[in-house]
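Sequence, structure tokens quoted for completeness.
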Amino acid sequence: MEFKKCKRCGAFFVSNNSVCPNCEPKDNLELSKLKGFLTENECPNSIETLASSTGISVKNLNRFLAQEDFSSVASKLDINPNSNINIQL
């Protein structure tokens, strides 16, 4: 296990995860919400539209879309899945 800084809240913690134990349930809920939205709807034109449609922050969407599971969505939004920058269309 490593000493890390939570990608979500900035707290320091020891774990193999990228978020602290307090933020993990929030991350899981938002990931579930994102997957459900993408299953039921067309992929929007921009990450800002996706954020407003799901209620998930652009910061967290960038983090989620960097995961391999969302590589096809990231490519539709012209987001480089290996970066955490917000690309506006």
Observations:
- The first strand starts at residue 2 and ends at 5.
